[in-house]
Amino acid sequence: MSTVDSSQFEKTLTSAKQLPPVIALVGEEEALISACLAVFKKNFSARFGEAMLDFNQDILYGDKDDISRVLDACQTLPVGMDMRMAVFHRAEKISSSAQEELASYLKAPNPATALVMVWNKEPKAFPKDLAASGAMVVNCWKMSDDFRRADWIAARFRESGKDIEREAAMLLAREGGDGLLELKGEIEKLVLFAGKEAKIQVQDVRRTLSFRPDQGVWDFINHLEAGLIPKAGRAMERCLEQGEEPFFLLNMMARSARKLVQARPRSAAVQLELFGQIKDSDLALKSGHGIESGVLERMVGAYAAWAS
Q: Are residues 126 and 186 in the same domain?
């Protein structure tokens, strides 16, 4: 098994003398998976042509297609081409017995079929027997590091014929959404917003991000529930800057806390502390005691006990 990062996939595939018979795109980041699939199909077409491709490809799904159909597609010989392709989406959905059958195939894959498995979970969940095969594993996990996200953003702007200030790219990386698909939407919005301007600046990012206040509230709550306390704090500040009512944010936090108690129970002391903080925050906002942002910041901190 060889492992490459999604950013190096195109270079690795282009330099390979032969197309690997098995490629596994492993991770949760749909934007990276889609990009890698596009790279694979482009490389396949460049090597083997497209004239007979409709007769030499199968698109399969782990939650719909039986493993026997998947294996039949892999073992079928190409028609009028030197190689055929099979793209197996949602491979993580198959049963443990189906995984064993797939692992058996991977020990001696058909050299005339290029199988691409899409495993939409964290790489650590990838079965060891599949990882131990000769598959090329491509890491497509979510980018949690803002510096890497900023690099990805800058590369997308270059593809659009524009540049972006590093500070602006970092702001977009922090505030533009959790996934790369969300960031891609923000990038497209900025490209349209910038018009003929060649370089995107911080003020441009701030203006376009302000067009998504509702999304900002959900970003705030999602960060809270995921235990991403620093990101939640920044999202909360943006919500207040955009005019969201502190009472509304507090009510959303209270609703989120009730969900957390049901989904991820903690000790009675931790639960009492959180709901006590909600009650105190409500009284502080109603009485006008304390700065609104400070009241909510203390509430955000109370969620840290759940994240720990």
A: no
Q: Kindly state whether residues 125 and 17 are assigned to the same domain.
A: yes
Nearest to 202 by CA among 156, 150, 244: 150
> Using CA atoms, how far apart are residues 281 and 290, in angstroms rounded to an integer?
9
Per-residue pLDDT reduced to its tens digit, 90-141: 999 998 889 889 988 988 899 999 999 999 876 556 666 666 666 889 999 8
The tens digit of pLDDT for each residue in 3-55 reads: 899 989 999 999 999 998 999 999 888 889 999 999 999 999 999 999 899 99
Domain boundary, last residue among 139, 165, 198: 139
Please check whether residues 132 and 23 belong to one and the same domain.
yes
User: Can you give the pTM of this predicted structure?
Assistant: 0.65
Domain count along the chain: 3
**What CATH code is carried by the domain that includes residue 179?**
1.10.8.60
